[in-house]
Each structure stands twice: as structure tokens, then as C-alpha cells.
Design brief:
Radius of gyration: 22 Å
Structural class: alpha/beta
Strand content: 15-25%
CATH architecture of the largest domain: 3-Layer(aba) Sandwich
Largest sheet: 7 strands, mixed
Number of helices: 14
CATH class of the largest domain: Alpha Beta
Helix content: 25-40%
Number of domains: 2
CATH topology of the largest domain: Aspartate Aminotransferase, domain 2
Distance between the termini: 36 Å
Number of strands: 17
Oligomer: single chain
CATH superfamily of the largest domain: Type I PLP-dependent aspartate aminotransferase-like (Major domain)
């Protein structure tokens, strides 16, 4: 495990900007990773370097050709990182925008009267797109209810509502509210059994920083991530699409290459920073394994990250040292249960008798950064069925420490005093 390797956590933390202090607030513990992870220092340096370059891709000069090489390298790195042997990668405005574009294309190319299926656990990025474009395209939307108690949706939940006329399906890989991961491969397989030609699009935005990505094993057609949630920066999203989705009629310029999905001149620096992210996972995999193959090192890093984040969330829930865990605090309720194997680096709670916003403020006054999720258009689909108006989201990544968890527990123990 990461913390069992002498000096490794320190080496990890040294690679991230603002790991223990906010440039505006000062010293703080960062437990708001689901809202946007910390940024690799290499990403900051790469962004600055490419921001200064005036040249564009597609010109007949040395600089332009160098930029194209950077983009091609980044796409190859992404293919290794996400284990995608076919299809293509492209960037857009954000993960949300890319989900809308993929879902829109899938829906408008489906025969009228067919169905779109998705689950109630999904973030509105995919859920809103699916409902909107199903209506416009003359398709019926089928909702798969998630389990309120566990904060998950399963292949069996999809299976009971599947019919052969389902043409488009959406899947959430991990919830930014409950922190629970879904078995994408199992859900996709269940869909293929009943509707083999269905176009399947996955929201991987919350999952990307917490575990391995393995597109070849999923049997899907689209996958989107938001790089600022996986150690890069704001301002763009990354999508992978299958050859089948690539070939469908889609928004494009007249007479442009038929397989192109990008609009306008893209920021080469955004692609380059994804190479930095992949290089980081590669480095970490080399620290926790003896693998020589890059993909194997990335897989090893993913396993180590998942194991260590499980260790941290267990410490948060069960206690550490002489501090009681969240489950032993009578004034604290843990969403989706204390013992939930689907958890990915996130624990959401409510404190009896205190508005969540007040709890977040008090934690922030103690230098602990968390976030309030409200039963609004972002989180109401999860919180409202639980009878909650809000909750406190405590989200971590593998650069957080058990000592930081202990500091959080010490404050929460007496938060109502």
C-alpha cells in the first residue's frame, strides 16, 4: 500500500501544486477532490509553456508540425492510459459538453420510436442530455431507478427494464454525490445481451482519478472525462468514441474529414497536459510494482490508488488512533452506508441538527476544505429520495494522508459544541 512505502506519500505530494496550503487561505487540508483534484506541477509548467506558443496546427512550418506531434503523442498516451485499442480521442469544452455531443449524435441517428435508457443515479451531464435529445429525436426515455440505500445501480437493475428496441444507453461510472462506483462492464454486457446494437455512452468524470480505466473491456461507444478532476486543469474535456460512433453523421464543417469531431483550433497545451497525467500514473506504477510495460505500470498504479483510498475512507469511517470514526459519532449519518465496497474515495455525511453549509463553514475555519451538496439540479436525484435537503461531501485522493483524516475526525467529533 502507498503509505507502507517509506517516503512515497511525500514524493507523491511533492508532485502536486498547493497540496497543503491554499494560495488565498493559507494552510489547509484538501478534501474537495470530487469538485476538482489538485493539479500536477508538471501540468502547470506545460500549460505555461504552450500558452506562449503563437503557432497553430496544420501549417507548413516547424512549430506547427511539432504541435501536431504533441497532439498525436497525447492521443497515444490516452489510448494506453484508458486501454483503448480502437476508436479515437478528441477534446472539447468540458466533460459535460462532450457527453451532450455524444448523446445527441447517438439519439438523432436512432430510428424514431426506439428507446433511450439511463439511471436515476446519473449526474445531470448525461441524464439531461439523454432526456432532452430523446424527446427531440422522438425516442422514449426509460429510467432505471438506483438503490437509495447503497447509492448504486447494477446490471440487474438495467436488465429488468431492457428491451430489444433500446438504441442508446447511458451509464455513470462513479457518483460525485455518493462516491459509489458502478460496474460499467457488467451493465454494458447486460445491455448488449438484449440490445446488441445499442450505442452505450459512459460518464467517467468522477471515476477517472480513483481507479483504472479499461475501455477495451467495457464494450461501449463513448467515454468522457474532465481533466481537472484527474490532476490536469480546467478549460477542456476529453472524450473517447468507438469507430462506430465516429462514423455516424455528426456536427461538422461542410466538406471536412468525415471522422473529425473537433471544432476549430484546439489548445495543444490541453493535450500535452494529458501526457503529463499519464506520465504521473506511469511513474507511480513504477514505484509500487516491478512492471516494465507502461500499461502494466498504469494498472498497478490504479490498484495502489484504490487500495490506499479505501484505507483512508475506512479510517474516516471506523476511526484512527484514539479518534472515533464517523460511524461512531451519534450526530453523524453516512450516506449509502458505512460498509459499502463500491465506495471510491468519497464519504458524504449529514450532521444532526446542523445545516450542511454551516458544517462546511466550520470545517473551513479549521482549515479543512469540504463541500455542500444540495438537493438541486445537480444532486436532487440522490438527496431528495433520502429526505435530505443537503449533505457534506468529503472527497479525497491518494495524496491525502491518514493524519489529515485524523484532523478531520477531531473537528467533526465536537462540531456541534
Amino acid at each position: 500500500m502507498l503509505h507502507e512505502r517509506t517516503g512515497l506519500i511525500e514524493a507523491i505530494r511533492a508532485r502536486f501544486a498547493h497540496v497543503d496550503a491554499c494560495p488565498f487561505q493559507g494552510p489547509r487540508i484538501f478534501f474537495e477532490n470530487a469538485g476538482g483534484a489538485l493539479t500536477l506541477k508538471s501540468v502547470v509548467e506545460t500549460s505555461a509553456r504552450f500558452a506562449a506558443i503563437p503557432d497553430n496546427q496544420g501549417r507548413d512550418n516547424v512549430a506547427s508540425r511539432a504541435l501536431v506531434d504533441v497532439i498525436d503523442t497525447a492521443k497515444a498516451d490516452l489510448a494506453t492510459f484508458m486501454n483503448a485499442s480502437t476508436g479515437q480521442f478528441f477534446v472539447g469544452e468540458s466533460g459535460t459538453e462532450l457527453l451532450f455531443r455524444m448523446i445527441r449524435t447517438a439519439c438523432v441517428n436512432a430510428p424514431k420510436g426506439r428507446k433511450v435508457i439511463g439511471s436515476s443515479i446519473e449526474h445531470p451531464a448525461s441524464r439531461s442530455a439523454a432526456r432532452r435529445w430523446a424527446r427531440i429525436a422522438g425516442l422514449d426515455y426509460v429510467n432505471v431507478p438506483h438503490d437509495d440505500a447503497t447509492g448504486t445501480v447494477t446490471a440487474d437493475d438495467y436488465r429488468v427494464r431492457l428491451t430489444p428496441d433500446v438504441a442508446v444507453a447511458t451509464i455513470l461510472h462513479a457518483s460525485p454525490v455518493t462516491g459509489m462506483g458502478m460496474d460499467v462492464a457488467a451493465i454494458a454486457w447486460a445491455i448488449r445481451e438484449v440490445a446488441p446494437d445499442c450505442l452505450i455512452i459512459v460518464d467517467g468524470i468522477q471515476h477517472a482519478a480513483h481507479g483504472q480505466l479499461d475501455i477495451d473491456s467495457y464494450g461501449i461507444d463513448g467515454y468522457a472525462i474532465s481533466p481537472y478532476k484527474v490532476f490536469s486543469r480546467h478549460g477542456y474535456g476529453v472524450a473517447w468514441i468507438s469507430d462506430r460512433l465516429t462514423a455516424l453523421p455528426h456536427d461538422m464543417l461542410i466538406d471536412a474529414p468525415a471522422t473529425g469531431w473537433e471544432f476549430g483550433t484546439r489548445d495543444t497545451g490541453s493535450y500535452a497536459t494529458m501526457s503529463d497525467v499519464v506520465a504521473y500514473f506511469d511513474w507511480l506504477g513504477g514505484e509500487v510494482s516491478d512492471e516494465v510495460d507502461q500499461r502494466k505500470r498504469i494498472e498497478a498504479a490504479g490498484r495502489a490508488i484504490h487500495a490506499y483510498e479505501t484505507h483512508l475512507t475506512n479510517a474516516m469511517i471506523n476511526g484512527t488512533g484514539n479518534l472515533p470514526g464517523l460511524r461512531d459519532m451519534e450526530h453523524v449519518t453516512i450516506l449509502a452506508g458505512a460498509d459499502n465496497p463500491a465506495r471510491e474515495g468519497l464519504v458524504s455525511i449529514v450532521v444532526d441538527g446542523m445545516p450542511s453549509a454551516e458544517v462546511v463553514t466550520r470545517l473551513n475555519e479549521q482549515g479543512i476544505r469540504t463541500h455542500t451538496r444540495k438537493a438541486d439540479h445537480y444532486s436532487g436525484n440522490v438527496l431528495t429520495p433520502l429526505g435530505l435537503s443537503d449533505c457534506i461531501r468529503i472527497s479525497l485522493c491518494h495524496y491525502n494522508t491518514e493524519h489529515e483524516v485524523a484532523q478531520l475526525l477531531a473537528v467533526l467529533k465536537n462540531i456541534r459544541d
